[in-house]
Amino acid sequence: MTQYSVLECLDRVEQVLESGTRIPFTNRRAVDVLEILDLIDRVRIALPDEFRDARGGRAVPANSAAAQAGETGRRAPHGARERSAKSIELEERSAELLAQAQAEAEQIRAGAREYAESTLKSLNDTLERTSAVVQRGIEELKRRGKTQG
Length: 149
Known about the structure:
Number of helices: 4
Mean pLDDT: 79
Structural class: mainly alpha
Oligomer: single chain
Distance between the termini: 109 Å
């Protein structure tokens, strides 16, 4: 197995996440989980011993990447709130669009019902007139048959 640096693995994780299939109306993507897990394992292997030791409870130097990552993690909730607000905004917009689409669909259904009713009434009127003509024809044939016979 090729030895990867932590940064190379993180870059690849980022690529996998960015290239994942977008899930409509969300900020989510479908990604290859096995590839992500493999990259996480490679990051663990590539980490220096001092990072693995920190996981066991030993101190990590303040200027280390782990300390910087911890500081970044403390600042992350602000970014999460921004993403959450954006997500709420998108959900509200999608709810508005859905309501609008449902209202338009109901109008289309109502119009279709009116058209169908109008067409059926017209057809019924035509059939009644045609039936009356046929009935008169039958009566005329009977009348002629009686006068000739």
